[in-house]
């Protein structure tokens, strides 16, 4: 007769099972988890769109004339693995609502430590006909200047890349629309890109003059006679830096990157604000920008920087929905706790399904 298993045998079986499960978990953890996205439809220009002259040619330095054309709509965005799902949705929304989608050039800025090949392949697989370039941003160029803020996500060096666009993009690119990755457009981006900047303004953005502007800076700032004079002879208003039209030529001539860095250096010595990359922009530009209609940045849909609670749209028409704040629509949808307005983001989500790559 077969021998009945002893208590010792059961202990051995239990230990073997525990070690097997632990090994399986370790193997699973070693496999890089990535995301797979569906291919988007191809979008075509309408008959009214201007033809980009010489779009198949190259300039003397190897840069495509299409990339440098003033008739192109130039869009700049940051790109990383954490927010790529939002970036893909944003690109789809831009193309879908554009009357001249083939005339749009995307300028993606990625961290120098990111896997550029993976990012390029991901974009190309979903948008095979997209006109785009990826630029490498050296995190160390700004890391030394970053101070901790009220939300750790705001301290990512890539959040500060918008201050370096004039240096990163080719000098032939003279005007761009900068967009965050947590937004979608429901209108033609060419309308926003055509914003007139007047004779002197460097950038345009929706202003919110009813916001408490003083709250964006510390008591240390306002109690300093020297620092508080920054806004003398200006009528500063809050504006969200997630949607901006920027004249890169004027930025370069005015050396505005250096001006922003100077404020960040002051912040390192004396804490004058709590948010990340926004206050330096306000210090340099608030009160001297061209105001854009609020429809182009219905922001704050991600709630505040602490809880990310649901919010409603601001009154008025909508051309762009922006989930600025802690709550991101893809995170809330995946967690089965979406806010009502997240349903407006969902149709642009290209995520197919997560899968594991064998190591």
Choose one word for the global shape.
Answer: globular
Uncertain ranges: 1-33, 59-63
Strand order of the largest sheet: 4-3-2-5-10-7-11
**What can be said about the biggest beta sheet?**
7 strands, mixed
Radius of gyration: 24 Å
Tally of helical segments? 13
Q: What's the overall average pLDDT, rounded?
A: 86
Q: Give the N-to-C terminal Cα separation.
A: 46 Å
Order of secondary-structure elements: HEHEHEHEHHEEHEEHHEEHHHEEHE
Q: How many extended strands? A: 13
Proportion of strand residues:
15-25%
Structural classification: alpha/beta
Q: Residue share in helices?
A: 25-40%
Would you kindly provide a written description of the structure presented here, covering whatever features stand out?
The protein is an alpha/beta fold. Helices cover 30% and strands 16% of the residues. The chain is built from 13 helices and 13 strands. α11 (256-269) packs across α12. It starts with 6 loop residues before the first helix and ends with a strand.
Salient structural properties:
13 strands; two-stranded antiparallel ribbon; seven-stranded mixed sheet; single chain; alpha/beta; disordered N terminus; 13 helices; 359 residues
Summarize this, please?
This protein has about 350 residues and is of the alpha/beta class. It contains 13 helices and 13 strands.
Break the fold down into its secondary structure elements and pairings.
Elements: H1 7-30, E1 33-37, H2 65-68, E2 73-78, H3 84-96, E3 104-111, H4 116-126, E4 131-137, H5 140-143, H6 165-168, E5 175-179, E6 183-185, H7 189-193, E7 203-205, E8 207-208, H8 219-223, H9 225-228, E9 238-239, E10 243-247, H10 248-254, H11 256-269, H12 278-285, E11 290-291, E12 320-322, H13 329-334, E13 351-356
Parallel strand pairs: 2-3, 2-5, 3-4, 7-11
Antiparallel strand pairs: 1-13, 5-10, 6-12, 7-10, 8-9
Helix pairs in contact: 11-12
């Amino acid at each position: 007769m077969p021998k009945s298993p002893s208590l010792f045998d059961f202990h051995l079986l239990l230990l073997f099972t525990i070690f097997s499960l632990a090994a399986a978990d370790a193997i699973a953890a070693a496999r890089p988890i990535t995301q797979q996205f569906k291919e988007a439809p191809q979008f075509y220009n309408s008959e009214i769109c201007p033809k980009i002259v010489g779009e198949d040619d190259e300039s003397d330095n190897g840069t495509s004339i299409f990339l440098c054309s003033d008739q192109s709509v130039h869009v700049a965005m940051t790109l990383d693995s954490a927010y790529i799902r939002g970036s893909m949705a944003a690109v789809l929304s831009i193309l879908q609502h554009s009357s001249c989608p083939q005339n749009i050039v995307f300028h993606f800025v990625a961290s120098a430590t990111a896997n550029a090949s993976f990012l390029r392949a991901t974009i190309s697989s979903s948008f095979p006909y997209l006109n785009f370039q990826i630029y490498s941003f050296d995190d160390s160029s700004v890391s030394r200047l970053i101070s901790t803020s009220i939300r750790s996500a705001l301290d990512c060096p890539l959040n500060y890349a918008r201050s370096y666009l004039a240096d990163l993009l080719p000098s032939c690119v003279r005007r761009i629309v900068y967009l965050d990755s947590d937004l979608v457009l429901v209108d033609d981006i060419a309308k926003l890109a055509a914003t007139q900047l007047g004779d002197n303004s460097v950038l345009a953005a929706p202003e919110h003059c009813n916001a408490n502007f003083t709250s964006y800076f510390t008591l240390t700032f306002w109690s300093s006679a020297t620092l508080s004079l920054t806004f003398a002879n200006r009528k500063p208003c809050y504006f969200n830096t997630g949607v901006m039209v920027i004249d890169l030529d004027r930025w370069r001539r005015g050396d505005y990157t250096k001006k922003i860095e100077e404020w960040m250096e002051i912040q390192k010595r004396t804490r004058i604000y709590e948010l990340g990359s926004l206050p330096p922009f306000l210090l340099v530009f608030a009160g001297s920008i061209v105001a854009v209609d609020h429809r182009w940045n219905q922001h704050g849909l991600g709630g505040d920087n602490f809880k990310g609670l649901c919010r409603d749209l601001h009154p008025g028409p909508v051309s762009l929905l922006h989930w600025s704040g802690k709550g991101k629509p893809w995170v809330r949808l995946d967690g089965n706790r979406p806010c009502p307005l997240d349903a407006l983001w969902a149709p642009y989500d290209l995520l197919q399904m997560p899968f594991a790559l064998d190591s």
